[in-house]
Amino acid sequence: MHTMTAPAVRLDAVTKIYGSGENRVTALREVGVDLATGTFTAVMGPSGSGKSTFLHCAAGLDRPTSGSVRLGDTELSGLSDNALTEVRRDRIGFVFQAYNLLSSLTVEDNVSLPLRLARRKIDARWIARVAESVGLGDHLDRRPAQLSGGQQQRVAIARALVTQPDAVFADEPTGALDTRTGRQVLELLRSIVDDSGQTVVMVTHDPVAASFADRVLFLADGRLTGVMDAPTAELVAERMTKLGAW
Amino acid sequence: MRDIARKTIKGRKAGFAGAFLAVLLASVLITALGVLVESGLRGGLPPQRYAGADVVVGGVQALPVVEDADLSLPERVRLPADVVDAVAEVPGVAEAVGDVGVPVSVVADGAVAELPRPVTGHGWSAATLTPFTVADGGGAPGRADEVALEEDVASSLGVGAGDRIELAVGGVASSYTVSGVVSRPGGGDARDSAVFLTDERAGDLAGADGRWDAVGVVAADGVAATDLARRIADAVPEVRTHTGDARGHVEFLDIGRARGELALMALSLAGTTVLIAMFVVVSTMALSIRQRRREFALLRAVGAKRRQVRRLVGTEVMMLASTAAVLGAVPGYLVGIAMGRAFAGSGLLPADFRLAMGPLPGLAAIVLCLLTARLAGWVAARRPARLNPVEALGESAVEPARLGAGRIRTGALLLVLGFFVSGLPLLVPGTVGVAGAAGGALLLSIGVALLGPKVLGAAAGLLAAPVRRLSPSHGYLATANLRANSRRLAAAVTPIVLAVAVVSVQLFSQSTLAAAAGRQTVDGVVADHVVTGTDGGVGAAVTDELRRELGDDATVTPVVHSQVVVRYSELGDPAQEMFAAQGLDPAGLGRTLDLEVRDGDLGDLGEGTVALSRTASATFGASVGDTVEIVLGDGTPIEPTVVAVYGRGLGFGDVTLPHDQLAAHTTSGLDSWVLIGGGDSAAVARVAAGHPGLVAATGADLTAAGSAERSAESSSSLVAILALLAYLAVSVVNTLVMTTAERTREFALLRLAGAARRHVLAMMRVEAAVIVVVSIVVGLLVALPPLVGVSLGLTESPLPSISPAGLGGIVLTTALLGFLATGVPARAALRQRPVDAIGLRE
Fold this sequence. Notes:
heterodimer; A: alpha/beta; Rossmann fold; 6-stranded mixed beta sheet; B: alpha+beta
């Protein structure tokens, strides 16, 4: 499933250090990787391996201490806070584990939030189509509290897709869901890659979730320790067991 | 953004209720105070006795003050005799009549008759200004011993034309023949009853010396009152003209003074209220924003710029505030009326004072509230705008432990500044130092608020061990909560600390002042007897008679009281302030009054000299030998030389002038006390008994009378403090309810872990107890330095006098508020089934 077009996201020698002095923690060490356009990548690793930091740096939520992050042809590491915010708003979609939605806004308003923040005109038909594509066509007027956990994640995915971003980043999107609902969400992520050529990057610790991806990156102790193409749950689990033993 | 803000407010009503209430009540309070300020400028009474005059010409009854409200003069500024003719010559004047008034007591059977209304004597020509008409008899008094009575006086006494009655001024009675009975149009609800003497006799009794209190003008047909007033003002120098309701300002001098005091008091209170409102709105907004950290982090993550987050918070605050401010303005008028009534009840305002009701106070309150909210929104938005989306999303519900370095620096600076200001009376003597010290409470409170979590963490740590010993299981949880969530605790404690500190300083500076003044009066009056007048004062004839009767072995010291304005330089700027003044004769003073002279010699007090209290001397920077610029109560400027400085200014007045000089510049010219050292008490009693309305007593009785007067003063400032306290109480309840309600999940978790409802409630009670104890202790500690400063400045003793009732009231109110405001929402939070509550999203 590899495409040879220019990578959607490229990390080059990315190092991230938190704190200073005695509290100094190196979360990423010289990580370099290309995430191809139109692929589904899973990032795995034991707790504290730096996988969340990886996601945050790659998605422009955080700036690396050194190294370069490119989204398409834009270098993110040198951007001002405002410029970085605009990149997140217009070219990146996010799905977090929980607390994804503004509780006082309806599904429709939550989905269109990035467009509102960009002061773009909101085309109700487009919102409806995006909601339809994640299977929420009937729930546009509901509030998050009236939805199930799986439905809430679908709203988050719809919001991530609404700007037709260069890449969608998901941080443990199934972490708070039961197996069946989680599976449906993963199928949805898979389908947006297959059907509309989206680029999706997902952090997870669940081998089953990782098996939905085209490729799995393994992180340990802030370093990229391995790559697995066409993963299955068993192979991933086996590799993780080894990582845990290190 | 407006849209999102509107929906957020709609979706999170509960979270915004606190801030909404804070602004609403600020609006109520500011409107109410605004009504009082406006009434101070425009309110009063429409004219009664001058109702028939188109224009009333009066003296310049105020001193202009640069960049501030004019200082209203306490004594009547009379017009020279020739003003009547000057006014009469102005074209368009049909009739110009001089009026002079003197309060008189009607004497029946040797005692002052109880009449329903106070009685004032006037010259007969002024009767046309109402106009009075003759109801019975000949009307006009033709001779100095004739008088025309208003109907109600005549009927109360049961007299008519031809009968004889007695009228007394300052206890000096004379007998008159009733020349007629007169009535005013509409009659009824006038403030005073009038009796008319000949013009000359009225002038003599009033001590007016040919001058007039006012000149009433009847306009010629077809001449508009306002035009005529302008022409008169242009033609005649040194007068003020009044038309419409403003004529009442001249008629009722006491209302002019009350207005000045009212405006001043309401203005200063409004200033404090705006400051506190800002503080309360900022802290409730900050609290509600802290509860929405994740929401703001999410917004930042999906592409909201810092500016947009700031604007969102700003828009929310403004939407909320505009509604709250408008809603608050309406009941504000009612609260204004209620406060006006309370002031009337405490004696600050005349009971019939009419408040001015215009749209301005409401509008001003709305504008002020919006400005406050704008500022509060700006401060509150700084934090969420600075949020790093990653940190916020990753963070669990536990709050960040550290305070910003800037916050700690500012807090420390405010504390240092607060201590310094509290100590000001040691460096800067006089009123500046005392006022500064009182302001120290606010600085210290806000400093403590900024350092709150640190201070409270420390305090909770101190309390941890004893609390655990008292209540092993709940105490353990409670102290753990308090230490872990010191920021939440700080949010709860801060408004209580502020309330306790501000109220303590206000209340106990008053009681310190009152106690010191009382002590000074007790120690200062060394006279054996005191003669006082129940009706206005004691006439000079009585003093002469006492001197004659008692002979040389007694000292008779008449004391006249007034107020004077002193012009001085305050920290380099010109200032002028009103001070209490007394006039007395220094001869033989050692036997009647001990002012505790510190420097110079009171015996030198004579024409062109003055003695000052220690405070006054320090305030003006004038020692013995220096001159001070003084404006007497009726506007006469003098520049006397200081001959003595004395200690007991609080009890007797800060400025002491020669008796005859001060008396000549008061409206009535009467003495308030006559102190008698030595002499035969029977003789004193005999003289007093011969004068209706006079009472002979001992020095101790005088002290009691003085303290009653002071308690009236302090009770009117108590009304003001109570209004402020009510506002602070609401903000306390507000924060406690908010901080308790946000813990629904935590309570559910505890219950699922096996804690019964009563365990959780017991834990909350321990927490509330710690909060209450810490707040009261810290609040009183914060109040202490300013109080010591105030006490040093006022009384030279570092020990403030703290009324046990006041202290008890503060402690009880705080405890009650604290327990109720945590207990009720905790119970409400526990009413949900824990399984449901634990699923609630934050």
